[in-house]
Amino acid sequence: MVFEAPGSALKLTELQIPESRDGQVRVKVSACAVCRTDLHVNRRAGEPNLPIIPGHEIVGLVDKIGRGVDSLLFSIGARVGIPWPGRTCGSCSYCVDGAENLCDEPGFTGYSLDDRWWLCRDGFTPGMRKPRKFGIYGFGAAAHIAAQVLRHEGHEVYGFTRPGDVEAQAFARKVGATWSGDSTASPPQLLDAAIIFASVGSLVPLALAAIRKGGVVVCGGIYSLHTRRTGARGERCRSNLTRLDANEFLRVASSMEIKMETVEFRLEEALRALREGKLNGAAVLGPGI
Ligand SMILES: [Zn+2]
Ligand SMILES: [Zn+2]
């Protein structure tokens, strides 16, 4: 499916199978999840290099290896994941400081990049021993995985959803939340940290009010850029993951059982379901669906 112009429907198009260039591997896609970022990509004018093939939550098998690829990292048939951050410059001050998620010259999969450059084999872990209380704002695909990892590590999860979305609140409790409620509600106790997955800037002050002194609010969505100006203490804009995050997450994920809640969709139906908020878990597209 090709995205040609802002606001236009995606177009089913026959394309040549690409070759892997130097430093790249070619991946045969097994499945691709869809998230709200795709809705933003579909609406925004000007930014992406159109036409593009949208999609940035990809799982597939390596089927060709270009020159210069580290053979210790990739082999034919290896299962790999391809996330939204598709390229970082490696030389700006953020990259040099190990915060490549904030890179000044990033490339994004299925948005500004039409190639899928950045691959991670087989990260999200707070790495904290002491049990903590984590708030999660926006209980969709990412949240339902994060909640299970946090529970696995002995932390408590508090799930915040759109006001009145009792279905999503029940879903949050099903995947391990101790408490769930409206995003405008106060949790029963102050939280140690909160992560905002929903791309809604007005959640930032709500999350800041829900954490204890010295707590941290992490903005996880791409629209966190809009909230950077608040300059609130304790707020961190992650925007993206780093390669280190991905590797760390996969290490934890392989030590536990994560129950994925997925719904298979045809592409247009998936975007509609996301737009209307009628989805628990991850919307997944696969060949032949
Ligand atoms: Zn996404
Ligand atoms: Zn950089």
TrEMBL record:
Q: Which InterPro entries match?
A: ADH-like_N (IPR013154), ADH_Zn_CS (IPR002328), GroES-like_sf (IPR011032), NAD(P)-bd_dom_sf (IPR036291)
Q: Does the keyword Oxidoreductase apply?
A: yes
**Pfam families recorded for this chain?**
ADH_N (PF08240)
Q: Where is the signal peptide?
A: none
Q: Which cofactor does it need?
A: Zn(2+)
Gene Ontology MF term list: oxidoreductase activity, acting on the CH-OH group of donors, NAD or NADP as acceptor; zinc ion binding
**Which Gene3D superfamilies is this protein grouped with?**
Medium-chain alcohol dehydrogenases, catalytic domain, NAD(P)-binding Rossmann-like Domain
> Which family, according to UniProt?
Belongs to the zinc-containing alcohol dehydrogenase family.
Q: What is this protein called?
A: Alcohol dehydrogenase-like N-terminal domain-containing protein
